[in-house]
Amino acid sequence: MFQNLLQRLLAPAPARLADAEARLALAALLIRVAKSDNLYSAEEVERIDRVLSLRFDLDAFAAERLRLDAEQLEGEAPDTVRFTRALKDAVPLENRTGLMEALWSVALADGQRDAMEDQLLRIVSNLLGLTDVQSAQARRQAQAQE
């Protein structure tokens, strides 16, 4: 089902993603962050659905469907770097802090800071072209919205 998208993500110079594919890539990255501490909790699933709903103006059913598709994609995808590169190309720099805020929101959904999540988010932030300061600001924004 996702072979075409995966092939494009794995290409040496991937083409810019269409909006629907960028949504799917973001959802898969949210899931990857949630799973990075080896716990994919109900709180994280709920937060992912809420982030997708708010970010893309989806009803609850459409957000859940996107998450379910992204869970499958995340399971088949080889690495986080490709998702992040695709999102970097699809999202203007001024909007990438919003991506980071969404990622932090999911990482913090279970009420725990985990070293593995922190490490992954540090890498993702760098790959998105954001500074540690911008990532920290996004984390504070995510915490303030809880």
Which superfamily, in CATH terms, is the homologous superfamily? TerB-like
- The global form is globular
Oligomeric form of this entry? single chain
Low-pLDDT stretches are none
If helices are DSSP runs of H or I spanning 4 or more residues, what is the number of helices?
8
| Total strands | 0
Helix/strand-derived class?
Answer: mainly alpha
Q: Mind telling me the C-alpha Rg? A: 14 Å
Query: Quick one: biggest sheet?
Result: none
User: How far apart are the first and last residues' alpha carbons, in Å?
Assistant: 35 Å
Assign the CATH architecture: Orthogonal Bundle
**Average pLDDT metric:** 87
CATH topology grouping: TerB-like
Strand composition percent: under 5%
CATH class division: Mainly Alpha
| H and E order | HHHHHHHH
| Structural domain tally | 1
Helical fraction equals: over 70%
